[in-house]
Specification:
Layout lengths: L19 H17 L3 H17 L4 H25 L3 H6 L4 E4 L5 E3 H27 L2 H10 L4 H12 L1 H17 L10 H9 L2 H21 L18 H21 L12
Antiparallel strand pairs: 1-2
């Protein structure tokens, strides 16, 4: 069967014991802080905390490793694209230019540009672990019930729950289609060329989409037959109340965001400038 990526797996950790709403608020506060700030000191602290929390959550590398490699690949493309299209962005932001070496008259590598792109990389590495932790430690049904408790429509909560619950099923469909392709002689293993593997993998998307659409139709019909959405409220088997640790995490998450953004904008700019 192989390991399923980004799939909820119950573990005996204090992070798993937290309510789904608590994890959502933490994730939102963490993401907002990371997106808003360009203060390298805050981003570096967030990176360290992300790695610690990732370790404490006992998230296995085989659950997220493949996805992380794809993210790393696109990160490299993004960093290169920034330099190609805006080679002087760092100098414009920090108000100085310290050349290291020259590629062409247009492309001059400066310390300021490298520092700016370092911040971009830090942003990715602070958000990605929190996304992984949120998905693999949150029970979809319990999360939907938690969303409903804070006033979000149970239709929306149930939709999110279904999306999270069917990640493993989509992965199973992907493996079945992949195995069928390999049985026909199409090389998709690590032995094949990288670009050929990408091309062959991309070809799986269309049958995977059609398979998923068939599942969506089946689920929709089943829910409609059971009268889903008729009433304004519903009961939840997996509903949970906020506990002491939930309140602690909520308070700490909000305070961290407020303090971090306060430090970021203390001088009127969200960019930390060590070149002044």
């Amino acid at each position: 069967m192989g390991t399923k990526l980004l799939t909820y797996e119950k573990k005996d950790t204090w992070i798993d014991a937290l309510c789904g709403v608590t994890k959502l608020v933490f994730f939102l506060c963490w993401s907002i802080t990371s997106m808003m700030t360009y203060d390298t000191r805050i981003l570096a602290l967030m990176l360290v905390l992300s790695l610690i929390i990732f370790k404490v959550s006992k998230t296995r590398w085989d659950q997220v490793g493949t996805v992380f490699k794809f993210i790393l690949f696109f990160l490299c493309i993004n960093v290169i694209a920034i330099f190609l299209f805006s080679p002087n962005q760092g100098s414009i932001i920090y108000g100085s230019s310290t050349p290291i070496f020259t590629l062409t008259s247009r492309y001059v590598v400066t310390i300021e540009q490298l520092f700016y792109e370092l911040n971009i990389i830090l942003k990715y590495f602070t958000i990605v672990p929190s996304v992984f932790i949120f998905i693999v430690t949150t029970n979809p049904s319990e999360f939907a019930a938690s969303l409903n408790r804070i006033g979000i429509s149970y239709n929306i909560g149930y939709s999110i729950s279904l999306a999270l619950r069917y990640i493993p099923d989509v992965q199973d469909d992907f493996r079945k289609i992949k195995n069928a392709q390999m049985a026909r002689g199409i090389e998709m293993s690590d032995k094949g060329k990288f670009m050929d593997r990408i091309k062959h993998t991309a070809a799986i998307i269309f049958p995977l989409v059609f398979t998923s659409m068939g599942r969506i139709d089946t689920i929709s019909n089943a829910m409609e037959l059971r009268g889903f959405g008729k009433h304004k409220k519903r009961t939840w088997y997996m509903a949970r109340k906020l506990q002491r640790n939930d309140y602690i995490v909520l308070i700490v998450s909000i305070l961290f965001m407020v303090v971090a953004l306060g430090i970021t904008y203390a001088d009127g700019s969200r960019f930390y400038n060590p070149f002044l």
